[in-house]
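Annex B. Sample input.
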Amino acid sequence: MRLRALLILSGLAVSAAACATVEPPVPAAAAGGSGAPQPVAGYDWFYNADDDAARLAYGLAESDDLKLGFDCRRGAGRLEVVAIADKGAKFEIVVEAGGETARLAASAEPSQLNDGVILTAEAATGEPVFQRFRRVGWMALWRDGEREAYAPHPGSAPNIERFFAFCG
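Annex B, continued. Sample output.
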């Protein structure tokens, strides 16, 4: 699975047309008046499915700037969670959605995309944090004590539910 995660992230980077420079995702503290984080220009949730596998990834379009990704097999009810981290990071992925949090024990391997590592963890789609993600439409990733909230743009928001419906 780790090799698959590396290939997935590398494949997304290779298929990119060009790198773009934009502001990094803003912390949730910069959210609008509703309390929900706001989308960041250029960054979004991208969904891709084929016959038996699907991927939902948050990053910058047409670049190798990926923050968080989920992969699953059709109807499996399980996710592979992939995040990019700095070298020396704890071997865990901490995600949050609408007040629910999960700490996922992860494995790490060197990233071929940057100087960091690729963290990979497994989880059930039914875990409260993922069910809340489906309802609120955004997810945050904690890195080095900092919270990065990832909100979809309106046109891509339905992709979150599509992904989880596919995964089961």
